[in-house]
Design a protein that fits this description.
The chain is an alpha+beta fold. 29% of the residues lie in helices and 21% in strands.
Length: 543
């Protein structure tokens, strides 16, 4: 049955071409799994695969890739939790690897690298000077960061240092893109917090790589948009997990004050720095989604607009910070530990130029703080917007251009809001390893994440209008000469657009790495970067 199905699905392979995949790992595209794999969270692209493969090991992943290589046009896409927004994790007429099944197969057996099953496993290694051990977590590429958090904190009191805001993303998915959040300025993005990877490359080989072993592959895969290999396992450094978090939001009417304070905070020395710095723009109105009600931290606090200066414009800004509480933090005299951390946080914020009186703070558990976006998901599922299209646009914009971007885009095109968060916060280029495949703005040490996270709501603009507005924003960035890059890029204009995205030298490196690790361009076809190439002796077919 498997051989006959593969023959029909590819319309090109001889039956013996696909002998490595077992029926147990394969689901026809007509099944519910195949229908789900045709779409992603963005809801803008539909690309029906020939089949969905449910791997239980890295060997299954390798078998799928080797089977595809024997055909003239079959491609393979790794899909985690389906949170790409422009079809990046789809494979029209190809094979989609359900990486969550790889994680599901890890729940009950000991780890065997490249074998049938793996587990999330604690690894201890001596530090370079001996003595104190360093701790790492070995985790499957299909594990959710939420699962990593609970496993590490509940079982070991340990956690990774760098996270994403939304934790129901897979390890392999975020490491293939970057993985950023408010911790990135201090601890680096997730791609800078990896010790080792197990990767199945486009030639069907399973390789273990790190900074010291096969480093070119290691750095190629990190931020490599899935082009060079499928991450089946990652080894992530762990640190002592905080006990609690002092979480604070403050409001600005001036973008200049907002950026000056945010940049000052992210460049403080470690002993005077917050553990998390983010921020967002919001509308100066009582709009429940885009305006004042989006600011107060849950707990009954109210936004008092009478405290705003008389010259406040149509857009305001919220700076969000967090200070972790560890066991070694001592309380203030006659106060408990939570109040002690609150005092430290207030002292650190005293020099800032925010609007006094518009401060919102709470002491929360560490796991609760990292899981805060779950409440957004729950509400979006209740009102139906979670299943609607999400024409999101994520940019990295140089600090040199962020004020002009604010005037032209945030206070211009988007002054009425976007029915979702407009994140705007700084990061440091020095925290990113230049050997990874991630493209960053070229000028300066500080750049900003600008994340326009639209939710299509009933009665709002049509999705086509929002997609067109995203295009207008990108055209404005180019026309104004901004130093920017698209995060989670998706281009349909061919090599010229990708070369511009990476820059000439980094694009040449990207192309060289593709030829080295995926010579037939089998992997990640949804990115629309490289056309599939036929095996030797077979004619190529456009895809």
């Amino acid at each position: 049955m498997m051989l006959a199905y593969m023959d029909r699905a590819t319309a090109a392979a001889e039956p013996e071409d696909a002998g490595e995949l077992s029926p147990a790992t394969m689901a026809p595209a007509a099944a519910a799994a195949g229908d789900a794999a045709a779409m992603d969270f963005g809801g803008l692209v539909r690309a029906v695969p020939a089949a969905v493969v449910c791997p239980a090991s890295a060997d299954d992943v390798a078998s799928a890739i080797r089977a595809a290589a024997l055909t003239p046009h079959l491609t393979v896409a790794a899909r985690g939790n389906g949170h790409s927004v422009a079809g990046q994790a789809t494979a029209e007429g190809g094979l989609v690897l359900d990486m969550r099944s790889l994680a599901a197969a890890t729940s009950s057996s000991s780890s065997r690298r490249g074998g049938a099953q793996q587990t999330m496993q604690l690894v201890q290694c001596p530090s370079e000077g001996g003595g104190v051990h360093c701790y790492f977590a070995d985790m499957p590429g299909g594990a959710l960061w939420e699962e990593v958090l609970h496993w590490g904190v509940d079982n070991h009191g340990l956690a990774p240092a760098s996270w994403t805001d939304y934790l129901r993303l897979t390890v392999g998915g975020t490491l293939s893109n970057g993985g950023v959040s408010g911790q990135s300025f201090r601890y680096g993005p997730q791609v800078s917090n990896v010790a080792e990877l197990e990767v199945v490359t486009g030639d069907g080989e399973c390789r273990v790589c790190s900074r010291s072993s096969h480093p070119d592959l290691f750095f190629a895969v990190l931020g490599g948009l899935g082009q060079f290999g499928v991450i089946t396992r990652a080894r992530i450094p762990l640190h002592k997990a905080p006990k609690a978090v002092r979480w604070t939001r403050v409001v600005y009417a001036s973008f200049a004050d907002y950026t000056a304070d945010a940049e000052w905070l992210v460049t403080r020395p470690p002993d005077a720095a917050f553990d998390y710095v983010e921020g967002f723009a919001f509308v100066n109105s009582d709009d429940p989604v885009n305006g004042w009600p989006s600011v107060p931290i849950p707990g009954g606090a109210r936004f008092d607009p009478s405290l705003l200066p008389s010259g406040a414009g149509p857009v305001l800004y919220c700076l969000e910070v967090a200070l972790y509480q560890y066991a070694q933090h001592r309380p203030d005299d006659d106060e408990d530990q939570g109040e002690g951390v609150a005092s430290v946080s207030r002292r650190m914020m005293a020099p800032l130029k925010y609007v006094r009186g518009l401060e919102f703070a709470a002491d929360v558990g560490y796991v609760d703080f990292l899981s805060r976006v779950n409440r957004v998901e729950e509400e979006a599922r209740r009102n139906g917007s979670w299943d609607a299209p999400h024409p999101w646009l994520n940019l990295f914009v140089s600090a040199r251009d962020i004020a002009d971007f604010d005037r032209a885009v945030i206070n211009g095109m988007l002054a009425d809001g976007i029915d979702g968060p407009m994140l705007v916060y700084p990061m440091l280029k020095s925290k990113w390893d230049p050997d990874t495949s991630v493209a960053l703005p070229e000028k300066g040490e500080i750049f900003y994440l600008v994340a326009l996270l639209r939710f299509c709501r009933p009665g709002g603009p049509a999705v086509d209008e929002l997609v067109a507005q995203n295009g207008a924003i990108l055209r404005a960035c180019r026309a104004n000469g901004y130093d920017y890059k698209v995060y989670f890029p998706s281009y349909r204009g061919g090599e010229a657009e990708w070369s511009r995205h990476f820059g000439a030298a980094r694009w040449r490196r990207f192309v060289d790495r593709k030829a080295r690790y995926d010579p037939l361009a089998i992997l990640a076809p949804g990115q629309k970067i490289f056309p599939r190439r036929a095996p030797a002796g077979r004619p190529s077919r456009a895809v």
